[in-house]
Amino acid sequence: MFVLHVGPHKTATTWLQHNFHANARALEAAGWLYPQTGERVRVAHHDLSDNAADILDDGSAKVAEIRRIAEKAKAQGLNLLLSSEGFRNWKPEQIIRLRDVVGQEMRIVYCLRDPASLLYSFWAQQIKTGQKLSFPAFRKQHFKAPMKSRLLNPLVEVARLVKIPDSRLTLLAYDEIRRRDLDIFDVFVTEILGLPALPHVEEGATSNDRLPLELAEFMRLMLIRAGDWRAFSSVNIGRMFQHFLNEDVRRDIIATVSAVPKARMSTKVPRRHLVFRRVEKRLLAEHRHRLIPQPAGDRLFLDGVQVCDFYREDKLLADPGVAALLDRMSHVFRPSGPRVVLANAARGGLIGWRRLVKRLRG
Q1: N- or C-end of the chain: fewer Cβ atoms within 10 A?
Q2: What is the pLDDT of residues 151-160, one digit of tens each?
Q3: Which residues, other chains included, contact 288 with Cβ-Cβ below 8 Å and sequence gap of 6+?
């Protein structure tokens, strides 16, 4: 069996991947290979999901790497588990090719989360990786054509995945799992892998928790001022703040932004919106048998409205305290500054070390 976990983002994927990685030996002893092959991200398989077109080139390094992993699994009589949100972006022919290279029966696992809460959570997450839009602008972008938005309408991806021939699609019901006070890792291990529950990594061991709103909005101001952050740093701004700002500085940023209450606004995303109701009904009508766990009634997602707080950038920038702090932090993270230079060098060295370890492991 080959299980391909494709995310998407903000459905506890980082939590799952950290736990898969931490339990790699236990999984192998129980018949599942979770390859320790990550270079860019140690705990997941983003290197394998990057550059999807390479899977169609039989002579590519990607195909060679996947063949090596598949041969190891076959030689040891193991099932294979791969996990990366990047796989959700692959075209059907690329996923089919991946299945053929692995040479095992494939089960694709996709997690469904309430679209209203996903929209807000994904907006905040994307700021850490370079997204500059305010929440109102981000919301408007997706509601221009809501049925075409992958965040608002998961059927866009589900309909494509279900058509992959000779494979089985399973949908993890994120909100139902939380309603039952279950842990998604336990559900995945017992229901997908067919194993007894495994230990969890320590709480806080993962690095993808939601930032305080004030810190996220300050990052967004930094990104707007920087222009193209990626032009001078291969390390995203979320990582820079995580590793180079101590708790006192973080508290100072949060307090300074919070001290401008007139800039704080909120908007509501109603879950009775037609697109959400249509999507929910279709998912239950067409894909209920694929859901784990099975919803008890006719609701898959959440009730009520999603309250989304945000800060108006014009009002923040007009505040002297915020403006002064932004000037100071922009100097701290200037392109030629020691922190950015050190972060880029450290990232390159870490990836090089992981690459070497992977080669030594064979």
Answers
A1: C
A2: 999 999 999 9
A3: 294, 295
